[in-house]
Amino acid sequence: MKHLLLTTVLLFFFFASSAQTKFGAGGVLNLDNLNSIGVTGKVHHTFDDDFAGQGSFVYYFEDITLYAIDLDVHYSGFDIALGDFAIRPFGGLNIFRISVGGFGDTDINLNLGVSGTKDLGSVELFIEPKIIIGSGSALNIAGGVYF
């Protein structure tokens, strides 16, 4: 787990050094458990006209320690434009960590979803409904802004 966190941090600094990188913040709601609400931070890096990579960290407000790291690939080649609102599919990995006291468990799952964005000039709104497939299966929706 330590190697995964180190790799994530190094990728974050690599992406942050590029002009094609944007940062985001927002909220997350787990629709399978409406009491599970969290906050997210995102780094989104555009590689070319078709592909972008995104790393996210989600911390859930629970009585126990609960967080997730998402590493996703966004595909713009199948862009649906509704005026200024663009919808793109994405997929990737979800690394979900739960711990109580000194005991914990980590699950690796798949993400499948769509990302909707609306450019407002200095900021960009996003909404991302996704399904998490695996032992930590869930239906989540995230929303917020990119800077």
Protein architecture, described:
With 147 residues, the protein is mainly β. The chain has one helix and nine strands, in the order H-E-E-E-E-E-E-E-E-E. It has one helix at residues 2-16, and strands at residues 21-30, 37-46, 51-60, 65-75, 80-82, 85-100, 103-119, 124-133, 138-146. It has an eight-stranded antiparallel beta barrel with strand order 1-2-3-4-6-7-8-9. Strand 2 (37-46) and strand 3 (51-60) form a beta hairpin. It is globular and about 45 Å long. The two termini are 29 Å apart. The mean pLDDT is 87.
What percent of residues adopt helix (DSSP H or I)? Answer: 10-25%
Largest sheet: 8 strands, antiparallel, barrel
Tally of alpha and pi helices: 1
Radius of gyration from the alpha-carbon trace, in angstroms: 15 Å
Task: Characterize the overall form.
Answer: globular
Q: Can you tell me the residue ranges where pLDDT is under 50 for at least 5 consecutive residues?
A: none
Classify the secondary structure makeup into a structural class.
mainly beta
Mean pLDDT: 87
Main β-sheet, spatial strand arrangement: 1-2-3-4-6-7-8-9
Order of helices and strands: HEEEEEEEEE
Number of strands: 9
Distance between the termini: 29 Å
* Fraction of residues in β-strands: over 45%
